[in-house]
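One such given next:
>
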Amino acid sequence: MEGGKLKVIDLNMKDILRDLESAIIYGLPVLLQDIAEELDASLEPILSKSITKIGNRSVIKLGDKEIDYNESFRFYITTNMGNPHYTPEVSTKTTVINFAVKEQGLEAQLLGIVVNQEQPSLEKQKSDLTVKVATGKRKLIDLENNILRLLAESKGSLLDDIELVDTLQVSKVTAEDVTQQLKVSEETERKIDAAREGYRSAAV
């Protein structure tokens, strides 16, 4: 698709930021191959498209440098992992295509692309809710782990452990709030999914 212009790089290369910098300035396509589930923090400005306008210039900060951003720049990422699990934060900033996916999964991916073209605000709500639900569930797990840690470290009577008692009280209130937020978010997500279904015929 990109022909001979495509620059292929990997995270083990010494001059990866320099190659990216050159591609961004001149609007060339780049393929970053063989990544794991954790992405390097230096890629964050590219993934989130943290572009600012300075006069007529579009500028992006890469590393410790601000460089001109060419709208023709394209960034592709591949992995050899069979079933990678990326964080919601990464998934919402990228278009993930699983080439080993079954027909149903591919249809879901295409549906997301169609909705993003036709109703970008709807797809953004879907992405934002996915992150919110995942963050809420993570918070509940962290609360549980913190309580278990304090119980394991507690000496003597549990009622005399002020930190543990305070944590239990705060955790109870927080857990109730998060659980309620999750219920609202999941209900909203179901409504958004129902609205997205109207575009399914265009994705098959």
